[in-house]
Amino acid sequence: GLSFVLGGLAVAPNPLPYYGVVGLMLGSVVGCGLLISLGVSFESLILFMVYLGGMLVVFVYSVSLAAEPFPEAWGGL
Q: What range does the record give for the signal peptide (predicted)?
């Protein structure tokens, strides 16, 4: 349980989304491992797949926003 909380807390203080997603992944892996230890492996797998998909969408969006504050258009306009 402590690893699950620490994984969630690892997201908040990180200014870069690269390190924040590591905390999210840690929290999801530990949470799904906790569910597997309780004997609900199928629900854990479905939760991990859905959560992983949502995290990757948010991660790609935030990385694309943080990559370059003033993107240059094609042709230098």
A: none
